[in-house]
Each structure stands twice: as C-alpha cells, then as structure tokens.
Amino acid sequence: MARNGGDEVPSVLLIEDDENVARAVSLGLQRLDYVVRVLDRGTDELEGLVLATDVVVLDIGLPGMDGFALCRRIRAVSDVPVVMLTARSEDIDQVAGLEAGGDDYVVKPVSPRVLDARIKAVLRRVRSSEPAEVSNHAARRELVIDDQGMRVFKGGAEVQLTPTEMRLLLVLNAHEGAVLSREQLLAAAWNQDYLGNSRLVDASVGRLRVKIEDDPNIPQFIHTVRGFGYRLTTTRRPES
C-alpha cells in the first residue's frame, strides 16, 4: 500500500499493551501477509509511525493515555483508518470509540481472520474514496463538496474528514434532499458485506456535524428525520 513507500503489502500499526494478545494478533496478521509493527502505548514517535502505515489497530484499554484519547491524537495528524479493539461488547464502548475517530471496532478475543476481514473492509472504503479525474463541485453556501476530488470546504477552508466520514457525506450528497434510513446509510457507506450496528451511523453523523455545521446541535445541512433517518439539504435553516 502507498503509505509505507509503495509496498503492496498492507502495513498495520498494532497498539496493544497485553504482550500475549499483541503476539497472537501480530503473528496471525503476519501469516496473512501483513507487515505489522507493535507498540504497547502511545509514544513520542507515534505520529511518524501513523503517517507510515495503512491501518492502525488500537486497543481501547491502554494504560496511561487510553485508546479513546490516543485515537483523538491520531486523528489530529492523520485520517488513517483505525480499527478499535475492545474487551467489552457494550454499545457505549463501541460508540465512544467511533466518536473518538475510530472507523470500526472488534470485540476481543478476536481471530486474525476476523480482524483481517475488518481491515480489508476499511481499506476498501479508503480505496473507494480515492480521487477521480474530473471534479464536480456541489455548493452548499458555506459548504462545498468536491465529490470527485474527495475534498470538502467550509467557509473557504478545507475540512479534514476520515474516509468513513467522507463516504457518508458523499452518500448523502448523492441523494440530496432524500431521507436515507440508518440501514441504507450503513449498507452504502460501510459496504454491503459490513456486519455492523446502526449506531455506527449516528456516531459518524455526530462527528461529521461537528466538522461541517456552524452549531452541531442546530444542524443546517444534515437533518435528522425522526423515526426514519437523515437528509442532506441545501437550505440552511434549523430543524423545527
């Protein structure tokens, strides 16, 4: 993959403090042809390592700076896909990880092949968000969506979105004015083969609103249609 200097073998940065888990996951992924680097916590060299990897696999329960805080630190420097590892299956942990900037989550213990499938899914979403040759700008007053160049501008400044956030916005943009259910958005933005929770959509919409709305609590662009789903509109008016 391109992030590690053009090598076609995907590179994974595994951040896991449990030596046994780290060893098992690392060996399993290496057998599946991944290049794996392991850290047991956030370090001063984290930013450089993140910029040189294709996917980060991040344990939530790290000592010191936990996985949520570390994910926010990663998001400050990169939109690299982040798969969160959690020892618990509660929705609150999963949603908190997504709100911190994660793209997917896996509950431990996890087999390398399940993790392989999730990594491939987020990489497919990254590839599907790569730029095309011709740009087509859709103006939203202060919001401009370049749906071919995969860039978004708010008030003239470029907004940095994760691949998942970009894909979600593009799906809403492609059906501008129409109400899309959470299930429709999940299938379109996370791919048909993604086995997930519709809470993923709510968490991602919340993160997206923080980045593109003047006030995420009074959305002007991405509207909630209670009982149905979400709608992107060009008219800047608060929800009633």
> What's the CATH architecture name of the largest domain?
3-Layer(aba) Sandwich
SS-derived structural category: alpha/beta
- What does the main sheet amount to? 5 strands, parallel
State which percent range the strand residues make up.
Answer: 15-25%
What is the tally of beta strands? Answer: 12
Helical proportion, percent range: 25-40%
Number of helices: 8
Topology order in helix (H) and strand (E) letters: EHEHEHEHEHEEEEHEHHEE
Question: How would you describe this structure to a colleague?
Answer:
This protein is of the alpha/beta class and 240 residues long. It folds into two domains: 127 residues, Rossmann fold, CATH 3.40.50; 96 residues, Arc Repressor Mutant, subunit A (Orthogonal Bundle), CATH 1.10.10. 37% of the residues lie in helices and 20% in strands. It is built from eight helices and twelve strands. Strands 2-1-3-4-5 form a five-stranded parallel sheet, with helices on both faces. α3 links the parallel β3 and β4. α1 crosses α5. It is globular. The termini are far apart.
